[in-house]
Model the fold of this input.
Amino acid sequence: MSKENPQQSTTFWIFFAFIVWIFSFWGFLSSKLVLTSDALSYYEHTKFFVENLSHGIYPLWDPFWVNGAPNDFFLRRIGALNPFYLIIILFKSVGIPYTLSYLWFLALYYWSGMVAFYLLAMRIYHDRFIAYAGYLILLFSALGTRLFDSYMMLVTVPLIWFFYFLVAFSQTPRKHFFLGLVLFFMILAGTYIPFYFLIILGLFLVLFFLTFPDQIPKLWGRYTDFFRKNKILTVLSLLILSFSFLPLITFFHDSSQGQMILPARHGDAGLGHTLIVPRQTLDWGAVEDLFYSSFFSNLRQYKFAVVYVPFFSFIVLFLGLIGRITRRAVFIFLLGMVLFCSIVPHGLPFYDFFYKHIFILKYFRNLHFFIWFFLIPLFVLLVLEHWKIFTEIKITNSRQQLSLFLYVVGVHLLAFLFVWQRKDAVSSTYVMIALSLVLWSLIVLRRRKANIGRFALLTLLVLVQPLEAYHYLSLNAAPYFSSAYVYNFSFSTLQLKDSNLLTPENTSRAKDTLYYASGGYNFIYQNIDNYPLARYLQNKFILVDHLEAVEPNQINTTVLEYNFLTNNNSAIVFAKAGEGVKLNSNDPYPPAQAMPIDENSTFFKLLAFDANHARIAMDIPYQKFLIYNDSYNSNWRVNINHHQATLYETNGAFKGVWIPAGHSIIEFDYGSWWQYLMNILLSILAFIFLAGLIWYACLSVRYED
Amino acid sequence: MLSKYLKLILTRNIFLYLVCFLLLWRLLDYNALLRNTIPQTLSRLTPPIDYFTEFVDKKDHYNLFILTNCINYHKAVMHFYPVQKAEALGMLGFCYERLGKQSQSIEAYAQAIAANPDYFWPYYNLGVIYYRQGQYSKAADYFLQAIEREPVRTIVLLARSKVYNDVKLSKNNGPYDYLAGLKEGRTEAYILLMDSLSKTANYEQLWNIAIIGIKENPDEQSIFYYYAGLAAFYEKSYQKSAEFLQASLQNNPNNSDAFLYLSMCFQAVGREDLAKEILKKAYLLHEQGSDTIKPYLTAARVRFF
Done:
């Protein structure tokens, strides 16, 4: 970190700031404080994914989610194509527990996004100090807090990387920039709602070409030159890129069949596609998010989901107001402004128009996520632009210098008065204003400080306020408790019987709206009382002798409820008219009641079990119908003694099959070969892209050296 | 010269922002925006009311955080729903008192009274705060004003209140029986008023209040007869005092305080033996922990239903 080597110096400060960041969030990163809200669900589904992956299983089915549901939805949510999940597997392989592996992965992944922001700022401003200021402001913005209550960074981080590679590739077309561009496009396209990204990218391109029309020929020349020189790489990458949409397309296709539904999300959106969200879920938008955050100006009350950017950035923004308009400032401002105005469903006319005419807007709610995904980083870029504009104001004589100095003092005085009149500011805000005054006075008075002094002062003044805010966040957050995480069991074992004592008195009658479930399960859950259903579901496997065949969707839930309550030796299966269904077993003396299977059932043995598969050995004297109380889906297959058998949708939601007398091996399998191939291949390709990107980046550095 | 300055102004960043914001302001339907934003935001600001209605006295940070959130929320309600100001201020007073900020609590309750003089609870709560501070004269003043409120007006107020509706919604069919709460609050206000009057030696008024209370509170007759007896005793009407105290003991034979004053009555009229015997009984009952009035006095806390 000597004066002579600014690169080393900046690297030191980038690491230093990250260590301070870790320190401020140590409560969460050491798992003393608990993840909440969406972060909790992402933690669990990521656990399910990576633990299965580390055992060589690509989990397309989740048997533990509301009695079984296709896992594709959660795979799209976590962005399963993201090769960075390997970090968790690496941590786990050296003995670090999953919770810490996941939390540290979050921290590292987030940090990588902040480094990408620094690199992006360097590409735009060619000034280490300004880029470092942007890195600090963004690193200590509220974006980092969302690691622990949301999944924002799964979009924000690849988005920042994407734009870094886009800018870098446009400036200097190199292979590693191109690969980076493709990799992060792939990651962003692989999530279940890539629309945020596609809207941002579309708007970015339109406004860029409107603001910088003279750049189009230059860029076109550079791109075509690169493509001419790297035809195979380009064609292959673009081909893979288009394939990366396949999991999303199949997911949309599957969800349109009604086999999986999202009742809480879909709400009363009507009979359309299950992924469509009703209009009223848009009531919480960007304006509401900002308005809500304004109630937390007292940082002692700081908590999750409160939009916060270190206050220093507003001082910079004000300083730049007197600077000369640049095209870049216009572009950044318009990009933010147009996007913001387009996502306000109440009070402005644009959103309604877009909602009617752009179909993708019907598929996602949470418009305020744009703030977290894009508008905060964009705001920081605008702050940096103002910084640049302000420092570029020409000073030709000491009078102008004095005027500028007085302006700096005036802005700081205003900031002080604004904070003071609110009466609720934390003390660090005043310290920050004082330090900022020192920094900007030195800049205006052209008092060049040594690198270390400048960087130390900047670091201190940006960090002092967020450190206090995040201290309060840690105090205000819930501490870890033993049942905080649900998915803390082995995914390769299946409990045959739930041993919890169940009585009508201790079973709640209240019905929740399920977030995500198989269509069949949601139907019986909503139409059958909780007690009979819970009683029935205590056993994963049940044997019955009699069947009643009904047309799909014509099930009588009263009969079903009676069967469940009385443990009747009968089940209802779905069969189309004319489809011959065997209705009775060959047992001459069938019992009156169904036979639930548990660990003591000697004729039944669960030989193998994982997310997509269950292998069972049975030895029974007479034919019986085996009900597997795991949701039915048309992608499930069953083989008995290596011969495919008919799998019935049983009791409205579950799987059932006739088992012959004698010894049998029954295998339940989920998914087709092409589903596994597609997912695994794309994951491998994403990894190859990452490896290629690192390889070419290293080569490029060596070449440049 | 002018064009130079004009050019200077028109090329500044601030000009760009001003133009954009003016354009936006022209397009914006401010009322439509607020119609959605305010209720949505308030709904999200709503603190976990289940928690703070349990009158938690913990001094930990979480408690502080929840109460601070409550303050934040009710300030917002007060700001955006002026018709709910009294109840919101009442809640603010409650939260401040729980945080130990008594002066702010008193200020909030006083403002709540100014916003709606019919609202029972701020009077009651101010009485409790002053009672606990040992300012019995002020306490008596507020308790007196509290019992003078028309209960039906408070009930109407609570029934229409968003603040109270939030409480109702926080636990479906929860134990938030405002009517029973108000009844209980009025009885407590009477008892605390009578105790404040006795502590300020205002026996004449105490006697009157006790007589009114006997008519209004059939459930707690023993306590009212007791205070009537106490007032009569200090007014030197020993005969009347003994009658009241005996009536009190008829309603509650374990009222040790009534026995104590009954003993003093007998002592005052020279029946020492009987007085000693009754005093012994009073002592025994006191030892057994069967004080009737003390629990009311020590348990008095600010409340909102």
